[in-house]
Amino acid sequence: MLEQITSSVIDWGSNFGLVGLALVSFTESIIQPVPPDLLVIPMSLEAASTLELLAIFLVATIFSVLGSLGGYAIGLYAGRPIIGRLARPSLSRRLDEILVRYGDAGVFVAAVSPIPYKLLAWTAGAGRMDLRPFVLAGVFGRGIRFGLQVLLIGVWGDEFMNHLDNPLFWILVCAFSFAAFIPLNKWWRGLDSGSATHLQ
Predict the structure, then answer these.
(1) Which of 151, 163, 147, 121 is nearest to 45 (CA)?
(2) Given its phi and psi angles, is residue 167 left (phi above 0), alpha (psi -120 to 50 degrees) or beta?
(3) Using an 8 Å Cβ cutoff, are 9 and 32 in contact?
(4) Which of 109, 87, 118, 155 lies closest to 24 in space, CA to CA?
(5) pTM of this prediction?
(6) What pLDDT is attached to residue 97?
(7) pLDDT under 70 in the chain at which residues?
(8) Which pLDDT score is estimated for 141?
(9) pLDDT at residue 194 in the model
(10) Which of 75, 91, 71 is nearest to 27 (CA)?
């Protein structure tokens, strides 16, 4: 089911260029599950100029952050009942704990990482987090996330793609991933201690 949704959204978004990227970026930060990265990367590979790369970066970043304001509004006006219906209790507790412990830094982490950005936006809205640091953290986090993709793929694309055929590259990737996974997994599991306090 999710694969069908992802395929449909990406096919649709690809047909509309930057407009499609804007809509996917905006809606992903509110409700839909398909990340804009799946459009940012192929569009960066096909970009013919630095100006096109800059446009991809700006559209993905700006509309993703604008969409997060919609997610914030959902949490603000619909409250925790909708979070309880759409997110697992353990995930909801972890998101609460991230905001309680780290505040706007927690928003930055969600914006730049695989942590569901929309769910953290809902949680921030439900907890009435101050809007200014919420937006600024999102801008920096999403900017770094999409900026790195555009830089690696769009600017150094050919050189980067050549590394994919090098076994040493994959050995280093696996070693780094394994080294990072252990402490990150421990940190993530530790967030679900059952003692998180709702952000207020």
Answers:
(1) 151
(2) alpha
(3) yes
(4) 118
(5) 0.80
(6) 84
(7) 1-2, 5, 160-161, 163-164, 169-170, 181, 185, 187-188, 193-200
(8) 93
(9) 52
(10) 71
Q: Which of 28-64 are b and which e, b meaning 16 or more Cβ less than 10 Å from the residue's Cβ? A: bbbebebbbbbbbbebbeebeeeebbebbbbbbbbbb
Spatial distance between the Cα atoms of 93 and 47, rounded to a whole number of angstroms? 41
Q: What pLDDT does 7 receive? A: 75
Helical segments of 103-130, H only: 104-112, 117-126
Q: Which residue has the tokens 């599950």?
A: 33
- Match 């409700």 to its residue by tokens: 31
Residue whose token pair is 């694969």: 3
Torsion (CA) 178, 175, 177, 5 in degrees, nearest 10: -110
Measuring CA to CA, which residue among 38, 44, 33, 29 is closest to residue 1? 33
Whole-angstrom Cα distance, residue 152 to residue 159?
Answer: 9
Joined together, the tokens standing for residue 29 give 């930060």
Tokens matching residue 199 = 């952000």
